[in-house]
Amino acid sequence: MSLTRAARSTSSCPTRPAELGQHAVLGKIAGGGLSTIYLGRRPADGGLVALKVVRHDLRGDDEVLSMFFDEARLLERLVHPNIVRTFEHGADPDHAFIAMELLLGTTLAEVQRACASRGMGLHPEAVAWIGARVADALEYAHDRADDRGQPLGIIHRDVNPSNIFLGFDGEVKLIDFGLAKCRGRALPTRRGVIKGKLPYLSPEQIMQLPLDRRSDVFGLGTTLWELCTMRRLFGRATDVATVRAVHCGPIPDPRVLAPDVPPELAAIVLHALERNRERRYESAGKLARHLDALLGAAGRAAATASLAEMQRTLFPAERERQRGWRRPALTLARAL
Fold this sequence. Notes:
Blueprint: E1 19-20, E2 23-32, E3 35-41, E4 48-54, H1 62-77, E5 86-91, E6 96-101, E7 105-107, H2 108-118, H3 124-143, E8 164-167, E9 172-174, H4 203-206, H5 214-229, H6 239-248, H7 254-257, H8 263-272, H9 284-314, H10 316-323, H11 329-335
């Protein structure tokens, strides 16, 4: 779960729960949107988790709760090194919660903003590494089946920099499956409703056509193009203009704006951005393999180290604050 400065806000819940499920609640560490995030501890082994709790004023909203538990049940099926891990979900009369892996770092969107404010960009190796790991996560989710071997038909539908997490140690995680399409979800998407952030939607999402895994490939392609150039690809001043840009706006070669981008990386990104999905990468797995082949073993190791160093440089205070969550109980209160 993305636990960052940008997310911190005053909780709407009047009192902090003492425990949720099997977890003792240590303190609030983030909040915003539909939920508040608490730091929790497992009594059995003392391990720390992030506890995502539905805001108190939304606790009686059946649609919010259905979406919340839909996401929890889906995430519990997804066990992959590049997807945030979910351990448990539950509810009592006052709280609905999900217990998740505690991640230390920031979202990719925060990295982009920090880089833009300093006039710097990401090394092409780091871009390829991020893309390959997110593509790996997507391929795993796309291929996931139920206990009877039937495909779940998972499509994330909201692949964008806010839903990609970069750890302070260089790890990459895909987060937030709240808008994911999946067979058996309690609340199917209503006709005429477009899910996801407009500048990262695929053309078929904009046109409300039936979706498949290639839609997520396009969203990741948009993200990678922006990482290469540190510019927006489809984002415009209005929603109407943004939709038009996704549908028919120019998609320039990244090297036009960033000449240091290797031609091989530019070609991979543009292949992911083919508007005609029949010409796009047919799977996220193939995209991941092409990015990994471009990197090679040495490039993969260098990219991880580069991302970790960049995070230390961009967010020293936030890194120290989050590291405080793992300190002994006597110093934990100051960190929170």
